[in-house]
Amino acid sequence: MLRATFAGMLQRKLRLLLSGLAVVLGVMFVSGALILTDTLSRSFDQMFAGVYAETDVQVHGEPNVAVNEFEGEQVAAPFPASTIEIVEQVPGVASVTGQVEADGARLIKPDGKAVTSFGPPQLGVNWTGEDGLIELREGRGPTAPDEIAIDAALARTAGVSVGDRVGVLTLQQPRQDFTIVGIYGFSEGRDTIGGAQFIAFTDEVAQELMLGETGVWTALDVQAADGVSPEQLRDDIAAALGEGYRGRTGEELATDSAKELRDGLAFFNYILLGFAGVALFVGIFLILNTFSIMVAQRTRELALVRAIGASRRQLIGSVLLEAVVVGLIASTLGLAAGIGVGAALAALVGGFVELPIAGLAVPVSAIVAAFAVGTLITLVAAVLPALRASRVPPVAAMQEAATPDRPLTRLTVAGALVLALGGTVLTLGLTGNAAGQELFAVLGGVLVCFIGVALLTPLVARPVVSVVGRLFSWSVPGKLGRLNSGRNPRRTAITAAALMVGVALVTGVGVLLDSAKQSIRGLAEDTLNAELVIAGSQTGPRPPTFDAAVLEQAAQLPGVARIAGSYLDMAEVDGETTYVGAANDLAAVRDIFGLRTTEGTLDTLGPSELVVDDETATERGLAVGDRVTVQFSRGEPQTYRLVGVYEATAINNGYIVPEAAVANFGIPQPVMGFVKLTDGTPTTEVEPALSALLADSPEVSVADRSAFIDEQTSQLDGVFLMIQALLGLAILIAVLGIINTLALSVLERTRELGLLRAVGLSRAATMRMVTVEAMVISVFGALLGVVVGAGLGAAASQALRDEGITQLALPWADMGLYLVLAALVGVIAAVLPAVRAARTNVLAAIAYE
Predict the structure, then answer these.
(1) Lower Cβ count inside 10 Å, N or C end of the chain?
(2) Contact 479, 761 (CB under 8 A)
(3) What's this model's pTM, rounded to 2 decimal places?
């Protein structure tokens, strides 16, 4: 039996290999993601080991408000310069160097445009001279207040050199101009560290521009005396300084810094693994269909084997053995492809952030995952065909029909139950009733729903395919193709289901994003009573900002009635971390955004007063007159009295504090401005003057309300394009499924094709017949995907009404395009099977079997 199995596999090697391509692609993503993570992790470890190689101990202040990467950027906690004197008195300290380092220093090129960053920080630091890490390439370090030195990568990006006069924007001060006196790099010939941009000032200028005050540091670099271990020195410094400080050795700094970047990389890794899961899920349909068709084609062969004594267990083992071999080969190929993908992505990331990439290595986790996932997926997909093969009776060897139709009753009932279960789980996840496991409930619900729909698809396959097929059956070959596509509803359904998954996911995301865009637009148009908006596009962890003086200057322009500036920070309010906003004019904010007072007043805010939305007030048990303690990113805790409560909306909610509080914000500059014009004043009269006030803030611009809303909603388009590109893999696997199904169907109908050719069907007509069959299956799958995806997207939109998605929008143009592209996909998928069918030898085909 074993020899017979291997002999049969050699005869069907091309069919089995084609079915394994889906596993190859899925395993490629899984192993590629793990290899990428391992390679970048080791690269980060090496980079930070070099950065902190000369550091014995570094002392930092504990941040006032701890935030994670999803909440914003951690604000450094400066401490007084007198701390140096305390540390210098600790036994074993050889030297102490004060350091300033904070994000938010943006270089303005000679053309007036700011150098942007898509992720890595833009650091403002104090110049501490050359050491084991920093190497001057040109010029010297800054010594005067209007001098700076920049890293070589920034100089190259900005196209500047020593002697050039440039502007610098920081979060604490408006634009100031400096002369570049030095360009420096880092050890081992690096122009930057991890893509970060460095602008070095003198000590006092760095303190003033980056921290808002002089005489403070963000870190102390401590060198140990000979014979003193970094660990002992760290502990002694901690004992001398007490609470509010944290000391770490250079080794600990390297480990912690690398871990932070790995944690950020984990999100990207999850995305790759998620799409690998989609690819493998779609691949199950392809493998299941391939093995089902091959089992059906071998009905007589299997019956003969049963007749000469093979047991059911042996037949099951034979089919599963084929699956294991296919899985092992596909896993091997997928791992090899994953190594290439992982190396390519690592090189791409390294080039983007100028990170020296560590040598490529394949972690054990990637090898184990590749073979475990690939083999398991193939085995799971082959179980049902194996069971079906074991049920072939010996008498079937005497029958001509290889694939008799079977009732769909049990399959339909099972599909309905599975779909109901998936819908229930999905509903629990979307409505937040999954006991804290909402994400897993949503993902699991979608997965089970797809399985339920796939089980129900054979029920609707024949009537829907018959209707769809009439669009292409204007000739005899077209009619034959339509009939062929509906003759085996199970096979057609499984083939179409693979395409359905990819199209449904793209459609569902499209419905959700279009609904979000439409809701944002409607909400902004209804609540934003401002004709002009000052804002910029956020490309990094910080939003663009502008000088607060612009608000006062803009208020004096002819035609401006009111202007409201928007500030934002993370703070702890009565011990709970939350977002806090500040207003330069509370009444202007109230009028421009249409805030409704539910308690107290929204007219003005005194220095120690704040307001909050009604939902937060109810949740926290607050009422007008209550006092709350607020700890901002900087400074000491402040006590505020609640003077007003307003009705929460999707745009406006949370605490609003007076403008005086922004001095302690992490970003003490406005991030947006909303301008209300006097009645009858056109925007074209005010916009040029307002733009002139923003000449020194190149990251922001002025736009009318409609353009501003378009800019905000267009950011979702980039997300959708990325999802479409990644889900293209699932659609590619679906195309492979259609090719495989048609190729096997052509082989199954060899005698039938010979008879058709014998009675006069030409080669061209034969190719048209196969092409129509492929187009019908493809359009049927896309139609299923559009319907299911629209339903899932609508359900998600409805569940997110409380989050601001109040309108349902269906992307009709995109859904129509998917159907058209599906027909094109069918044409492409039919090429090879159609050519093979057209080349059928008439006499050999008639004598087949």
Answers:
(1) C
(2) no
(3) 0.78
Give the chain's radius of gyration (CA, Å).
Answer: 33
In angstroms, the CA 185 to CA 204 distance is 23
- Separation in Å, CA 813 to CA 271, 502, 506, 809: 27, 18, 13, 12
Query: Is the separation of the CB atoms in 796 and 706 below 8 Å?
Result: no
The answer on pLDDT for 9 being more than 70 is no
Confidence band (pLDDT; 50, 70, 90) for 401? Answer: very low
Q: Answer whether residue 403 shows pLDDT above 60.
A: no
3-class secondary structure, 749:
coil
How far, CA to CA in Å, does 778 sit from each of 164, 275, 468, 737, 749? 61, 22, 10, 10, 20
* CA–CA dist 745, 832 (Å, integer): 12
The two tokens of residue 302 are: 């299997």
Question: Parallel, antiparallel, or unpaired for β 134-139 and 176-186?
Answer: antiparallel
Q: What's the average model confidence in pLDDT over 166-189?
A: 91
Residue 97 has φ and ψ, to the nearest 5°, of: -120, 125
- Amino acid identity of residue 727, one-letter, is L
Q: What CA–CA distance (Å, rounded) separates 173 from 598? A: 37
Q: How does DSSP assign 241-292, residue by residue?
A: H-TTEEEEEHHHHHHHHHHHHHHHHHHHHHHHHHHHHHHHHHHHHHHHHHHH
Please provide the distance, in angstroms rounded to a whole number, between the alpha carbons at the two ends of the chain. Answer: 23
For residue 420 the two structure tokens come to 């109901």
Q: What are phi and psi of 680, to 5 degrees?
A: 85, -5
- In angstroms, rounded to a whole number, what is the distance separating the alpha carbons of residues 667 and 662? 8
Q: Which of 793, 8, 773, 798 has the alpha carbon at shortest distance from 465?
A: 773
Each as own residue / partner, the long-range contacts of residues 450-453 (CB below 8 Å, 24 or more positions apart, any chain) are 450/281, 450/422, 450/497, 450/500, 450/501, 450/504, 450/788, 451/418, 451/422, 452/415, 452/416, 452/417, 452/418, 452/419, 452/420, 452/421, 452/422, 452/423, 453/415, 453/419, 453/497, 453/500, 453/784, 453/788
CA gap 222, 251 in Å, rounded: 14
Q: Measure the CA–CA gap between 241 and 542, rounded to whole angstroms.
A: 32
Q: What are the backbone angles phi and psi of residue 148, rounded to the nearest 5°? A: -140, 160
